[in-house]
Amino acid sequence: MEVARMQRRSNAYHISVLAVLMAIIIVQNVVPFFGYIPISGLSLTTIHVTVIVAAVVLGPKDGALVGGMWGVIDWIRAFVAPTSALAPYVFTNPLVSVVPRVLIGVVAGWTFIWWQRRGKQMLGLTLAGIAGSLTNTILVLGLIGTLYADRAAGFYKVDLTKLMPYLLTIVGINGVPEAILAGILVPLIGMPLLRFQRKNK
């Protein structure tokens, strides 16, 4: 009886955290400057942090689910309310808008599990944040460069032969700060949630 009661309590906690993180994803996509923060000419994405937190606290499966939700929202917005001139051309393709966001949860979740099993939970949180963030940046820009080279070169106003070096520059300018941000925020948010989760179990 006691085991069943604790199992129900653990399941309720799991579902509650998942619902809250999904709600945060929606808010980050709707409220200006919450999911995308402009800083000194950059547009830093913070939505991936929520996906990574879901992956480390709830596991890769739920991280992939939360990431997929972000991707689907991005995919829908590309049709009805594109966030950039490039969005209607590239983010209407689920390979670009959805798949990388699903893989954020998978990569971050398993990165954390690997390090946690070796007794290095804090390091695992940090590396999961970095790995998840870079997964999003590299896959999105890589797929744009691979699948839409001609169009992307036109929108970015660069010579087609210089497109990949230009996209790699974006990885450095935007992707690296986002990875650092995730590496800092994921442990700060994830550690208290994991402690509460252990206490709840």
TrEMBL record:
GO molecular function, a single term: transmembrane transporter activity
Coiled-coil spans in chain: none
Keywords annotated in UniProt: Membrane, Transmembrane, Transmembrane helix
Keyword DNA-binding in annotation: no
Transmembrane segments: 12-31, 37-58, 70-92, 98-115, 122-146, 166-194
Pfam families reported for this sequence: ECF_trnsprt
Name of the protein described by the UniProt record: Integral membrane protein
Species in which this protein is naturally found: Lactiplantibacillus fabifermentans DSM 21115
